[in-house]
Amino acid sequence: MTTGHPRRVKRPNFTFLAVQAAAILVGSLLLGIGVLGFVPGLTTDVSAMQWTASRSGASLFGVFRVSVLLNMFHILVGLCGLLVARSYARSRAYLLAAGALFLALWSYEFFLAHHHQIADGWLHFGFGVAMIVLALTLAGARVPTGAAGEPLPTEID
Fold first, then answer.
1. Which residues have CB under 8 Å from 4's CB, separation 6+?
2. Contact at 8 Å (CB) between 133 and 125?
3. What pLDDT score was predicted for residue 31?
4. What is the structure's pLDDT at 52?
5. pTM score, two decimals?
6. What does the alpha-carbon distance between residue 104 and residue 99 come to, in Å, rounded to a whole number?
7. C-alpha distance from residue 47 to each of 37, 40, 58, 61, 66 (Å)
8. What is the pLDDT of residues 118-146, one digit of tens each?
9. DSSP per residue, 5-29
10. Where are the alpha helices (DSSP H) in the chain?
């Protein structure tokens, strides 16, 4: 008679920590926003889109003013998030640096820009704060865990 050992799921060779998953999520979201900024129907007055937002007449969902430069910025920052997500340290650095970049963009829009697009500014502020909070709060979770918070097994018994 053979006794069966309870089988544990073997973890794949790669695992994503929480900060890496956050980098993937934020990167995907920014990439999507950048691409949607070029889609007619979702972006109103696409024909009025200019290189910079101060001159552009196009707006995403009729609320957020978009321009070619701003859409490309969102796409580039989003792609960076997806590319660095394979490393814990790079994911955390990405969230901190891109968060600071979005806060700098918000402060420029809020204090220095002559056009005051309130929705754009608060969207950039929200992204910046959220990214920095994710980088700081998820940084301590360096052990991959299951749904109940237990450490995942490393091999089959």
1. none
2. no
3. 94
4. 64
5. 0.73
6. 9
7. 12, 9, 7, 15, 12
8. 777 788 899 899 999 999 988 776 655 55
9. PPP-PPPPS----HHHHHHHHHHHH
10. 18-36, 68-84, 88-107, 118-137
